[in-house]
Design a protein that fits this description.
With 429 residues, this protein is of the alpha/beta class. The chain is built from 12 helices and 16 strands. Strands 4-12-11-10-7-5-6 form a 7-stranded mixed β-sheet, with helices on both faces. It has a 4-stranded mixed β-sheet with strand order 1-2-3-15. Strands 13-14-16 form a 3-stranded antiparallel β-sheet, with helices on one face. Strand 13 and strand 14 form a beta hairpin. Helix 10 packs parallel to helix 12. The N and C termini lie far apart (45 Å). Bound molecules: pyridoxal-5'-phosphate. Pyridoxal-5'-phosphate binds next to helix 4.
């Protein structure tokens, strides 16, 4: 029997296996046929503490029986208030910068990015109405970025085969070259030049570009990018959708650079990965540009499920876990275990360019046909599936982004499978 389900980022014509998963616990997925899979990518970068975390599951169950959903335009509920206060407390702080002080809820990373872009343009639009500035529209982006799959989020992301069909709809942006090691100055000079032309905002993935291939750059560069934007009054937007919630070794990766952005998007791990929720945080100047007695200045964005109470309750439980448990300690231990094994794998001539930030590790397989559209990705995916491991390589880049509860035995099994993949698919230089 064929299924009517149309899967995302999946070529149905290749007739790859589609495993049926019935249950999950910790880092383990249980298949309907009795097998298990170690979740090496946190089910697409969302699961942080582990699947079906008891505290989060209990919070969802309790909230579902009390208040499920409420129109959020002018009504509120305690879970949303608690998440907003918690986010403001935990967000990056610095004595030199205005703090992030306002929280706008939505339901996915893409939407949180759309909201960030709309806030930035809304800021300049409303300032212009007051005669305080010229309207600014242009957005600067970093080469190889990924910010989501809606039209605005695609517009500020890397162009390629994955968005070619919609190119005519994507708006024009200014692209700043990626700060590869040794080329940081080119990046910063290009940003300085672009900022002199009064763009509205610059949006970045802080410290590591995820979907672009796990490309890492230094906190010093992030800090300098923020400083250049501040000097030119260009709004600095950080997309912490993937990097947030501990992935890079700190709760948010901006902390490592001492940067407080004007606008910050968070999603994925905000509920521990159990249920969709997203938030866009902004400083008071962004909020105040929309605050007025004039109704035409209000922030025109909403979705039906904005700040869904069940999702907010899950986020409240996640924030409590962060406050009360040694999550960063768990992350540090896992990160160390990954680093030791990655160093060893880096010696294997089938691999090159091992790199790691926090609990994200990546390495490139030296293979004959390595492009994004080559069949290497699906073949590797099928191989790892046979090994009982869920990994989803980006072309020839194999990366791990496991939940923080992954144990040593599971980590060993993943690295054994990587080594075996090198033997089978690698073509040493
Ligand atoms: C995943 C991701 C998004 C999009 O989030 P969705 O919840 O999938 O819409 C945006 N930005 C970054 C950096 C991401 O990794």
């Amino acid at each position: 029997m064929t299924s009517p389900v149309w899967h995302p980022f999946f070529q149905h014509g290749l007739e790859e296996a589609i495993p049926l998963v019935s249950r999950a616990e910790g880092a383990l997925l249980h298949l309907a046929d009795g097998g298990t899979l170690i979740d090496g990518i946190s089910s697409w970068w969302v699961t942080t503490h582990g699947h079906c975390h008891p505290r989060i599951a209990a919070a969802i169950a309790a909230q579902a029986g009390q208040l499920d959903q409420l129109v959020f335009a002018g009504y509120t509920h305690e879970p949303a208030e608690q998440v907003a206060r918690g986010l403001i407390d935990l967000a990056p702080h610095s004595t030199d910068c205005d703090p992030l002080a306002h929280v706008f809820f939505s339901d996915s990373g893409s939407t949180a990015v759309e909201v960030a872009l709309k806030m930035a343009l809304g800021y300049w639009h409303n300032r212009a109405l007051d005669g305080l500035a010229d309207p600014r529209h242009r957005i600067l982006v970093l080469q190889h970025s990924y910010h989501g799959d809606t039209i605005g989020a695609m517009s500020v992301g890397e162009r390629g085969v994955y968005n070619a069909a919609w190119t005519p709809l994507l708006f024009d942006v200014g692209t700043i070259p990626f700060p590869y090691h040794g080329q940081e100055k080119e990046t910063l000079d290009a940003l300085e030049t672009a900022c002199a032309q009064n763009p509205a905002a610059f949006i970045v993935e802080p410290l590591i570009l995820g979907a672009g291939g796990m490309l890492i750059y230094s906190p010093a560069v992030l800090q300098e990018m923020a400083a250049i934007c501040a000097r030119h009054d260009v709004l600095f937007i950080v997309d912490e959708v993937m990097t947030g919630w501990g992935r890079t070794g700190t709760l948010f990766s901006c902390e490592q650079a001492g940067v407080v952005p004007d606008i910050m998007a968070v999603a994925k791990g905000i509920t521990g990965g159990a249920i969709p929720l997203a938030a866009t945080l902004a400083t008071s100047r962004i909020f105040d540009a929309h605050r007025s007695t004039d109704r035409s200045r209000l922030f025109y964005h909403s979705s039906s499920y904005t700040a869904n109470a069940i999702a907010c309750a899950a986020a409240v439980a996640n924030l409590a876990i962060w406050r009360e448990e040694d999550v960063l300690g768990r992350i540090a231990t896992l990160s160390k275990g990954m680093a030791e094994r990655l160093a060893q794998l880096g010696e294997d001539p089938a691999f090159t360019n091992p790199r790691q930030l926090g609990v994200i590790a990546a390495i490139d397989l030296i293979a004959a046909d390595a492009g994004y559209l080559s069949d290497l990705g699906p073949r590797l995916r099928a191989f790892f599936l046979e090994q009982g491991i869920l990994l989803r390589p980006l072309g020839n880049t194999i990366y791990l982004m496991p939940p923080y509860c992954l144990d040593v035995d599971q980590l060993d099994r993943i690295f054994a499978a990587l080594s075996k993949a090198g033997d089978i698919f690698g073509v040493p230089a």
